[in-house]
Amino acid sequence: MTSTGFSRRWIQGIVILAAALVTAFGVGLFMLLRDSLDPLEESASNYLGHLGREDGQAACSAMTRTARAELTATYRAKDCPAAIQAMIEPLTSAEKSELADTDTRYPKASGLTGYVDLGSNPLDLSQLVLKDVDGTWHITDLR
């Protein structure tokens, strides 16, 4: 083998390695940006998961104070976790599981208010409205 053949293989190896590193970096950067760009969707998904798992305490802590008070009044409950229980009580286990896995779509924010559209779910919710409270998105309205 000549030194030219060795040099070509060496250069080809370096080019392939560089392409692999750039691709890995690009995928990692995309995943990082995707995670940081969808906090609305993550908050909405977590809230629906709390509802589906009947975790009223966690669901209520993901809501604004006003939303908790409105939900409590709507269900004439003693507190927010009791209102959550009343809201999901009619659902079967399968429906609760479906609720926890509801698709969240098209997160969009306008200033400190965010909106996340929802797929089909047993509570017939079509959208969650969220508010940025100290850098964390909290549910403010169920539509």
List the helices and strands and how they pair.
Blueprint: H1 3-37, H2 39-52, H3 56-61, H4 65-74, H5 80-88, H6 93-100, E1 104-110, E2 113-118, E3 127-133, E4 136-142
Antiparallel strand pairs: 1-2, 2-3, 3-4
Helix pairs in contact: 2-6, 4-5
Concise account of the structure shown:
With 143 residues, this protein is of the alpha+beta class.
Sheet/helix structural class: alpha+beta
Instruction: Tell the overall outline.
Output: elongated
Highest CATH level, the class of the largest domain: Alpha Beta
Report the C-alpha radius of gyration, rounded: 23 Å
Average pLDDT, rounded to a whole number, is: 90
Number of helices: 6
Low-confidence stretches: none
Distance between the termini: 73 Å
> Number of folding domains?
2
- Which range does the strand content fall in? 15-25%
Number of strands: 4
CATH topology (fold) name of the largest domain: Nuclear Transport Factor 2, Chain: A
Which properties best describe this structure?
2 domains, Nuclear Transport Factor 2, Chain: A, 143 residues, 4 strands, alpha+beta, elongated, 57% helix
What does this structure look like?
By secondary structure, this protein is an alpha+beta fold. The protein has two domains: 1-37; 39-142, Nuclear Transport Factor 2, Chain: A (Roll). 57% of the residues lie in helices and 19% in strands. It has six helices and four strands; from the N terminus they run ααααααββββ. It has helices spanning 3-37, 39-52, 56-61, 65-74, 80-88, 93-100, and strands at 104-110, 113-118, 127-133, 136-142. A four-stranded antiparallel β-sheet has the order 1-2-3-4. α2 (39-52) packs antiparallel against α6 (93-100) and α4 packs across α5 (80-88). The longest helix is centred in the N-terminal third of the chain and has 35 residues, at 3-37. It starts with a helix and ends with a strand.
